[in-house]
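Example record

One chain of 55 residues, shown exactly as stored in the release files.
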Amino acid sequence: MAAICGGVLLNRMLLGHTALSGPEVERLIPYLHSALDAVAKEPEPAGEETADRAE
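Predicted structure tokens for this chain:
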């Protein structure tokens, strides 16, 4: 999580990447949210993973 947040801040503040500091930055929030969820959530047990996909 620290690497993702640090990378975004580095690109936004130090490098001035326009996609991360421009007026359309709100479009990136769902992507950042998904990336943070992918590394922060506890993995599901093997049996429950397939049951969720069947629904």
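Notes: The first helix runs from residue 2 to 14.
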